[in-house]
Amino acid sequence: MNIESLRMFCLVVDEGSISQAARLSYVSQPAVTRQIHQLENFYGTLLFDRTDGKMKVTDAGKLLYPYAKSIIHDFNRSTEMIKQAMGEYHTILHVGASFTIGEYLLPSLLGRFKKEKPDFKVTLTIKNTPSILEDLANDVIDLALVEGLVENKDLLVEKFADDELILVCSPEHYWNKEIQISELLNERMILRESGSGTRLIVENMLRENGVLKKINGYMELGSTQAIKSAVEAGLGISILPKLTVARELELGLLKEVEIAGVTIIRNLWLVKKHKRFSKMGVTQFLDFIQNKT
């Protein structure tokens, strides 16, 4: 048994097939099968049930999986720490972010970080908040930046910035700089899909002000970019994170309108795991964020 056998076992479990694990590892399927057989011979039991042409993890495989993940993680961390101590390393930082942060805030932030730390290699993964937090829990990424709720009490969560949600309309809209919230009832509201974090915040605000059930929410779109384009075309109004419309406001493609007595601020969260050792890349990136945001 060796680390690579455990690593391959975990990859097969994660991907659900030997062929996919082989493709991701750039090896042949027989090579993956040999690694699995080595583990099965070592433990003296089957780790996968291959009956009926389907591969399922056996009870023994399910028991082994968390231990194998832990062993691989500790091995990787020990390798990093030794190389870091010996000065023989290239720092690689894996950052995960939810869509709004990953698409609108992090690109410029990472660009500035790379200018200060040109030797660092940075990868960015963008998914919804639950998926990013799952990647963090499984050590796929080193840290996460999200705007959604973080309910996992085993993770360290701290605010690193905030974002305001604002009302926007097309430049040709008759509204001036400020309206009463009741004026929303005369407009066609364009919303994100049900379950979106941004939509939940907007709906909570409308509910608190007693107008949610009266709103003419006539269109749902699955991306912020699609909503911006629809609003710009005069198809309706929307309430969006300010950082997502900064460029359009600057270019005059959208117009910001204040709602009297209403301010919507949400926190942006930096999430990391409890670590025995601090990875140099994580430490330096955290210092950078705290000084730049």
Task: Please explain how this structure is put together.
By secondary structure, the protein is of the alpha/beta class. The protein folds into 3 domains: 84 residues, Orthogonal Bundle (Arc Repressor Mutant, subunit A); 96 residues, D-Maltodextrin-Binding Protein, domain 2, CATH 3.40.190.10; 104 residues, D-Maltodextrin-Binding Protein, domain 2 (3-Layer(aba) Sandwich), CATH 3.40.190. The strands form 3 sheets. Strands 3, 4, 5, 6, 7, 10, 11 and 12 form an 8-stranded mixed beta sheet that branches. It has a two-stranded antiparallel sheet with strand order 1-2. The protein has a two-stranded parallel sheet with strand order 8-9. α5 links the parallel β3 and β4. α2 packs across α3. The longest helix has 28 residues.
Distance between the termini: 47 Å
Largest sheet: 8 strands, mixed
Shape: elongated
- The CATH C-level name of the largest domain is Alpha Beta
- Parts with pLDDT < 50 across at least 5 consecutive residues: none
Summarize the structure.
Helices cover 46% and strands 23% of the residues. The chain contains 10 helices and 12 strands. Strands 3, 4, 5, 6, 7, 10, 11 and 12 form an 8-stranded mixed β-sheet that branches. The chain has a two-stranded antiparallel sheet with strand order 1-2. Strands 8-9 form a two-stranded parallel ribbon.
List keywords for this structure.
293 residues, alpha/beta, Arc Repressor Mutant, subunit A, D-Maltodextrin-Binding Protein, domain 2, 3 domains, 8-stranded mixed sheet, 10 helices, 23% strand
